[in-house]
Amino acid sequence: MKTQIFYQETLDKAATLLKEGEVVAFPTETVYGLGAIATSQEAVLKVFEAKGRPSDNPLIVHVHSVDQVINTVEEFPESAKLLAKQFWPGPLTMILKAKSGIYAPALSAGLPTVSFRMPNHELTLSLIEQVGIPLVGPSANQSTKPSPTRVQHVVEDMDGRIAGIVDGGDTSVGVESTVIDLTNEEGPVILRPGVITKEEIEPIIGPLVEYMKTTTGEKVTPKSPGMKYRHYAPTTPVVVVEGSVEFWHSLIEEYQEQGEKIAVMATNDILDTVSSKVEESYSLGEKDSLTDMNHHLFNALRSLDHTDATIILAQASVKEGAGLAYMNRLEKASSFTKKER
């Protein structure tokens, strides 16, 4: 299969391929998504095949309007209305109970719930509108690999496996959306952290149920992507580093004594002191900027995986606010964590 690249002026051709049941990757503000018509079982199964994705890992449905959700769910509760008004289009996914017989069974992995998001990207909103049907849009990478934030990342993983890719430039957020379950009997709960945080959501809809664990049992079908399987991992082993600059220096020396070729991904304050001591480095941005760290995370993992490094040392962040999103992805990508005692 020849994978075509589409731009704004050829968006109609991408829409035509999607309407014909093909798979076309599209940009969002978070990561690139792997698009297919959400109502077609055959098209959705092509997405699972292209990604090598387990069949019990549900997909998110992407819409261009709130009406596309309201028309396909059993109920669009007040909490959903308030969240949509505040955060859509944007990096927030809401889990709702869908009407039966509308969406492809494969996308929900047999569950009665469906995840919905309105991406904040003009090209993709226009694409969905032209298709006229909501699209699934899991990250456009091979399963377990780092999510794609650039067209080149999608080409690396999907060239020859899908019909096309819409080039919308680099993504702005860099990590996947926050997922909130509005069908949970005990109350709304965040199943996957993102840059829209609990602290931003609670003033809109009230207190959330305590954050749930991001993994589920082996025989349990997760309601949200990112809860059960290993994700985001490059081929090169990743070690999360939590500690002072002095700790970084001692750890680098330790690994060098073991014969490792070291790559470091960290904020500028760390890199300024250690980059000259290692083989490769990648800046995660300014000190204490969680926005920068989330934005650069996946490209850093992919870029350093293409070097001669035998190990990647990755800077930890705080586990609060948008730092939860960063650490959720980084810990899934890593082998283990080294903490300063």
Give an account of the 3D structure.
A ten-stranded mixed beta sheet has the order 1-8-2-3-7-4-6-5-9-10, with helices on both faces. A five-stranded parallel beta sheet has the order 13-12-14-11-15, with helices on both faces. Helix 1 (11-19) packs across helix 5 (122-131) and helix 10 packs parallel to helix 11. The model is unreliable at 213-219 (pLDDT under 50). By secondary structure, it is an alpha/beta fold. The chain is built from eleven helices and 15 strands. The longest helix is centred in the C-terminal third of the chain and has 16 residues, at 290-305. The termini are far apart.
Write the layout of secondary structure elements.
Layout: E1 4-6, H1 11-19, E2 24-26, E3 33-37, H2 41-51, E4 60-62, H3 66-70, H4 78-87, E5 92-97, E6 113-117, H5 122-131, E7 135-136, H6 151-158, E8 164-166, E9 178-181, E10 189-192, H7 198-205, E11 238-242, H8 245-257, E12 262-266, H9 268-274, E13 280-283, H10 290-305, E14 311-315, H11 323-333, E15 336-339
Parallel strand pairs: 1-8, 2-8, 4-6, 5-9, 11-14, 11-15, 12-13, 12-14
Antiparallel strand pairs: 2-3, 3-7, 4-7, 5-6, 9-10
Helix pairs in contact: 1-5, 10-11
